Amino acid sequence: MGDNIFVTSPLLPPLEEFMPYLEKIWQNRILTNGGEFHQELEEALARYLGVKHVCLFANGTLALLTALQALRVTGEVITTPYSFVATSHTLLWNGLTPVFADIDPHTFNIDPQRIEELITPQTTAIMPVHCYGIPCDVDKIQKIADIYGLKVIYDAAHAFGVKKSGQSILNCGDLSILSFHATKVFNTIEGGAIICPDIKMKQRIDYLKNFGFAGETTVVAPGINAKMNEVQAAFGLVQMKHIDAALAARKAIYERYCELLNDVEGISYFNAPENVEWNHAYFPVIVDESYPVSRDALYEKLKEDNIYTRRYFYPLISSFSMYRHLPSASPDKLPVAETTSQKILCLPIFPDLTHEDQDRIVRLIRQYGAISENQSPSSLIVEELA
C-alpha cells in the first residue's frame, strides 16, 4: 500500500515566506476588520484576475449568501442540481426557492435551453455554476436574463483565473462568486470573494459583510459577519507569488493524464473549448458501460489502495431531503444530470502530484479495468502467475 493520495491538495508555500506576514500581524495587532493585508489582497486579486472590484469573504458560502442579499433577489431562482450543496443552500437561507434546470451533456453546466421553459412570474434570478471551471454559455444565459429582466449570479467557485476569448469570465453576469477553500486552485485556507462591476455595488457588499456598519455608530443594512481575517489574507498574498507555477503544474498533470488514459476503454475525459484559458481545477473522467466495473466500484477499489477520488457531483442536490419535494427536482426532469452523476469520477490533481503517484493511479485503473466486480487485483495477479 502506498501513501494516501487525495483528489486535491492545497498549494502550501514555503513556511519562511509566510512568517514575515504573521510577524507583522502580531506586531501591529490588527487581526481582522479590513486590515492592511485584506486590502492588499483585494487589490492584487483584482489586477491578477482582470476584474474591477474584489470583496473578500471568510468563505465562499457567505459570499453567495451576501451576493443574493446585495441584489435583493426574491422568489424563485433557476439553478443547477449538479453542484456542491452550498449553491442551493444559500438560496434556502435567503428564503428563496431553487428551480432546477438540467445540464448540458458536454460541459456539465446548466443547459440554457432548459432555463427559459422554467421561468415563471416568481422568477427573479439565474444562478449558474461554472462546473470544474469550464465556462457556462454566458452569452445565451445573459440574453435570456435580459429578455425577462432577471439577475445573474455566477457560482464561480471553480473558476479562478479562467478566461474566455481573452476576458475573465468573472466579469459576466451581475456578480460572480469565488471560493478560496483549501481544496481550490487558489486558496486562503478558508475564504471567498464577490467580483463586482462598480464601486457602488462594492460599497454595498462591504457594508453587508460587516454587520451593515457604515461608520462607528451608523448601521445602514442588516448585514452579517463575513469578513476575511488578516491571517487568511496574508496566506493568500503568499499564494499569489506561486499561482502561475501552480496553474502550469496542473496543466502538465492534466495533459499527462490524457496521454496515459487515452486508450483505456470505458474511460473518457474532456478538455475546455479552444477559446478558453482553463485552470485545470479538476480531472473528471466518465466511467461508462464499456468499463468492466461500475463507477462506484472503481471508486471503492481505488480507495482500498489509498487513492481518494471524489464523485463530483453525486448525489445530485435535487435528491436531498430538503429539495426532493420540489417539482423541478423530479429525476425524470433532470435526465442528463442524473446520468452524469452516476458516471463522473474526479481523479487526484494538484501541483505536487508526482509522476510516480500519477502512474500508480493510472496503472490501477487499467488493472481494475481488466477484472470483473467480483475479482480483486490480488486474485487477478494470482491467475496471471498460474
Automatic annotation (TrEMBL):
Single GO BP term: polysaccharide biosynthetic process
Matching InterPro entries: DegT/StrS_aminotransferase, PyrdxlP-dep_Trfase, PyrdxlP-dep_Trfase_major
Modified residues (N6-(pyridoxal phosphate)lysine): K184
Keywords, alphabetical: Aminotransferase, Pyridoxal phosphate, Transferase
Catalytic residues identified in the record: K184 (proton acceptor)
MF terms (GO), sorted A to Z: pyridoxal phosphate binding; transaminase activity
Gene3D superfamilies named among the record's database cross-references: Type I PLP-dependent aspartate aminotransferase-like (Major domain)
Keyword Glycoprotein among record annotations: no
Keyword Transferase among UniProt keywords: yes
Family (UniProt): Belongs to the DegT/DnrJ/EryC1 family.
PANTHER family associated with the record: PROTEIN RV3402C, TRANSAMINASE
Record's protein name: DegT/DnrJ/EryC1/StrS family aminotransferase
Organism: Silvania confinis
